[in-house]
Amino acid sequence: MLTGRESLVRLIGRRRRSPLPASLAALLSPSSPAPVQANVQGSGSAEAARDEAGSSSGGGVEWVPCPVCGECIRGSDYCVNAHLGLFTNPLFILNVAGYIDMLSCTDDPSEYDIKEILEVLSVPEMKEILKELPKDHTTCTRRHELLSTLLSLYHGGTCAALPKRILKWTGACIRISKMADDLLWRVQCHCGQAIRVAQVMDEALDDNNMEMVTRCIDLSENRLCTMSKIEIATSSQPLPLFFSRFSASWVYSKILTLGVSVYERDRRYTDAIRILKLLLRTVASDRRRGYWTLRLSVDLEHVDRPNESLSIAEGGVIDPWVRAGSKFALQRRVLRLSKPPRRWKVPSYADSVKRNIKEVNIEGRPLNCETGAKNVFYGYDGELCGVEQLALQYYADEGGGWQGTHSEGGVWMTIFGLLMWDVMFSDMEDVFQSKFQTAPLDLETDDFYKLRKDIIESQLKKIQDGMAEEMLISSWELHQGTSCRGVNWDRHSLADLRAIVACIGGNLLASLVRHLAVDYRSWSSGIPDLLLWRFLDERGGGEAKLVEVKGPRDQLSEQQRAWILVLMDFGFDVEVCKVSPVAKRR
C-alpha cells in the first residue's frame, strides 16, 4: 500500500457515497459561499449597544440595558460588566463578540420569530399562558394545538399583553447569532469539501484513474497554499495544536502526503519535490515533518542533487519536530552523504548511530522459501507458525526458560494506559469534547506532558519506588472493561501484567513510561516484537528482555533501530533474533 493511503482511509472510511457528479470541475472546485457580514443586527447586537453607549453628549449619563440581565447600566461601563457573576459574565462576553443573541423580558418580541420563541416553552407553560387570557382555551391539550393557538392569538393582535406574558414565561433566551452560524457553516463546508476530495482520490486510486488522482493532488496543493496565507494573515492567537487535525488544511496535507507516494512510485521526483517543499514550508508544527524531510532528501538524490540532499538532511536533524525513526534515518543519511570532500567534520552523533545491536541467530524448518511470501516455519512442537512464535518457543526452551508475549508494543500501550489512567483522564481544558473519547485530544502532542508534568512525575516517582504492581491492580479493578486508548483488556491477563512489571523493575519501567508520555505519537510504534520475562528466585526477583524478530530477507526499519537504541540507553536487555532456514546438507 502507498505510504499515506492507510492514514487517508482511516480519515474518510471505506464507505462509498453517491456516484461521482458528471462535472469533475464542479466537484473539485465548488463555488464559495457568500461573504459573511461581520456585524449582527438586532436588539442583542453588541455593535448597536456600543454605538448607543457612545452617542451621549453634553455631559449627560447614557444608560443602556445589559444584554444578559436586562439591568440598566452606564454606557461607559458597558464593556466592564462588573455587575455580572461567574456564570453570567461568559454570556456577556459572547454577546459582545457577536457570537450569541440574547432575548430577555425587556425586549420587544416583534423583532424576533415568535414561533422560535414559543418552541422554547413546555406544554404546561403554554397552558398557563392560555389560562391567563380572557377567553377559555382549555380544550387545547396537544403541543401542536397549543402552539397553533398562541400563534393565532399573537398574529391576530387580540391580546395586547400576550407578548409580555410569553417573555415572562420564557425568561432570558440565548441563540447562536447569524454571524457565528455563518462562520461555523463556512468552516464545516471547507472541511467537508476537503474530505470529499480525499474520498474522490481514494476511489480514483482503486480505479487506477491517474488523471483524477493528479487533479485531486493539484487542487489540494492550491487549497493548502491559499489557506496557509489566510491563516497567517488572520491568526491572532493560535489554537491548541491538537485542533489542527479538524481543519481542512490538515486533510489537504494528508492528500498531498499520499500524492508524494504516488509521484515517487511513478518516478515523478520533480513533482514530489515540489509538494514536499510546499508541505515543509506551510505546515510548521507537525510530526510528519520528519517523513517529509526524509523523502525530500531521498528524492533530491534521485535527481542527482546530492549537495542539496545533504543540506536538507542536516536541517532535518536539528528540526525540533523531526523525531524518532525519521531523525535516526536522517542522521544515517548525513553520515553517508557527508564524507569528504563534502564535509570534513564528523557529526557528534556518529558514534551513537553506529552502535552495534546484539543479535541472536536461530534456525527453523520453513514451509516454503518463496520470495515475497509470508515466512511460515514448523515450530518446535511440529505445528506451523510465524517467525515470532518460533522465536517465543526458542526462548522458552533453549533460550533460557522465558515466558513471553508477541504484541508489537500492544502490551506496553496497555501498561502505559493502566499506569497513567488518572493522568490521561485528568480534568484539562478543551481536551475532552465528547464523552465517547478514549483519550484526551492532546495525547499525541507535546502539550500532554507539558500541561500535566507535575502529576505525571508524581506517578513516575511511585513507579520508581516499586508501586507499579499496586497501581496496576487498582486501575484494573476500577476500570476493567472501560475503553481507553491502547488498553486491551482481553489480550493480556492481570496476572501476566503483574509479572511483567515486577520483572522489569521500577527504574526501567518509569523510563519507558516517561518516554511515551513525553512523545506518545512518535514512539507508539516500532517497539520490539517480543516482551520476555522470567523470575529468578522465589522471592519475586526477575528480569525482562525485549526482542525484535526478523525472518529471512527482513531488515530493521529506522523506527525499530531508533527504539532499540533508546532501550539500550535506558538499560534494557534488548536484542535482534534472526530466523533463517535450516542449511541443506550436501
TrEMBL record:
<protein>
    <recommendedName>
        <fullName>Fanconi-associated nuclease</fullName>
        <ecNumber>3.1.4.1</ecNumber>
    </recommendedName>
</protein>
<dbReference type="InterPro" id="IPR049132">
    <property type="entry name" value="FAN1-like_euk"/>
</dbReference>
<keyword id="KW-0460">Magnesium</keyword>
<dbReference type="InterPro" id="IPR011856">
    <property type="entry name" value="tRNA_endonuc-like_dom_sf"/>
</dbReference>
<comment type="similarity">
    <text>Belongs to the FAN1 family.</text>
</comment>
<dbReference type="GO" id="GO:0005634">
    <property type="term" value="C:nucleus"/>
</dbReference>
<keyword id="KW-0539">Nucleus</keyword>
<keyword id="KW-0540">Nuclease</keyword>
<keyword id="KW-0464">Manganese</keyword>
<feature type="region of interest" description="Disordered">
    <location>
        <begin position="32"/>
        <end position="59"/>
    </location>
</feature>
<dbReference type="GO" id="GO:0004528">
    <property type="term" value="F:phosphodiesterase I activity"/>
</dbReference>
<dbReference type="GO" id="GO:0008409">
    <property type="term" value="F:5'-3' exonuclease activity"/>
</dbReference>
<keyword id="KW-0378">Hydrolase</keyword>
<dbReference type="GO" id="GO:0036297">
    <property type="term" value="P:interstrand cross-link repair"/>
</dbReference>
<dbReference type="Pfam" id="PF21170">
    <property type="entry name" value="FAN1_TPR"/>
</dbReference>
<dbReference type="InterPro" id="IPR049126">
    <property type="entry name" value="FAN1-like_TPR"/>
</dbReference>
<dbReference type="GO" id="GO:0070336">
    <property type="term" value="F:flap-structured DNA binding"/>
</dbReference>
<feature type="domain" description="VRR-NUC">
    <location>
        <begin position="463"/>
        <end position="581"/>
    </location>
</feature>
<dbReference type="GO" id="GO:0046872">
    <property type="term" value="F:metal ion binding"/>
</dbReference>
<keyword id="KW-0227">DNA damage</keyword>
<keyword id="KW-0479">Metal-binding</keyword>
<dbReference type="InterPro" id="IPR014883">
    <property type="entry name" value="VRR_NUC"/>
</dbReference>
<comment type="function">
    <text>Nuclease required for the repair of DNA interstrand cross-links (ICL). Acts as a 5'-3' exonuclease that anchors at a cut end of DNA and cleaves DNA successively at every third nucleotide, allowing to excise an ICL from one strand through flanking incisions.</text>
</comment>
<keyword id="KW-0234">DNA repair</keyword>
<dbReference type="InterPro" id="IPR033315">
    <property type="entry name" value="Fan1-like"/>
</dbReference>
<dbReference type="GO" id="GO:0017108">
    <property type="term" value="F:5'-flap endonuclease activity"/>
</dbReference>
<dbReference type="Pfam" id="PF08774">
    <property type="entry name" value="VRR_NUC"/>
</dbReference>
